[in-house]
């Protein structure tokens, strides 16, 4: 399932990159994003109907993970669209078409960090602590073990 997820992530990243560079076919790209998210949500359902799973464990159910990925990518799309609108309103010059600004705010590292992180809402910059809080991680691990 991971290679298929990476394909969907890269498609959305490419579409957002094209939208950020002010292409004339914005509506087509937005339509392609919608189709990609719809396919991402439906693909594991179709697959699970074709190949039924022996153990119905929610943790290992690909449908759950793909729906979560779809929600994360929708958040990524909406945050970037709001950012594009903010830049467009801030100055009417061709500021948001410059490659340096695109690379600064729209890069794969931030996207994959967001996909792996345990949050659903995408932010342009995530808050980070200076050190790892071991007590916090231990509490979360205990909650996960208790939940299973």
Word description of this protein:
The protein has helices spanning 2-20, 26-50, 62-90, 99-105, 108-116, 134-147. It has one domain. The chain has 6 helices and no strands. The protein starts with a helix and ends with a helix. The longest helix is centred in the middle third of the chain and has 29 residues, at 62-90. With 148 residues, the chain is mainly alpha-helical.
Q: Can you lay out the helices and strands and say which pair or pack?
A:
Layout: H1 2-20, H2 26-50, H3 62-90, H4 99-105, H5 108-116, H6 134-147
EC number: 2.3.1.20
Pathway: Lipid metabolism
Membrane topology: Multi-pass membrane protein
Which labels suit this protein?
0% strand, 148 residues, mainly alpha, flat
Report the radius of gyration as a whole number of Å: 18 Å
Number of domains: 1
Task: Give the biggest beta sheet.
Answer: none
Count all strands and give the number.
0
Dominant shape: flat
Number of alpha- plus pi-helical segments:
6
Order of helices and strands: HHHHHH
| Overall pLDDT score | 79
Strand content: under 5%
Structural class: mainly alpha
* Residues in helix, %: 55-70%
Extract low-pLDDT stretches.
95-100
Please identify the oligomeric state. single chain
End-to-end separation in angstroms reads: 22 Å
Protein name: diacylglycerol O-acyltransferase
Keywords: Acyltransferase, Endoplasmic reticulum, Membrane, Transferase, Transmembrane, Transmembrane helix
GO molecular function: diacylglycerol O-acyltransferase activity
Transmembrane segments: 31-51, 63-83
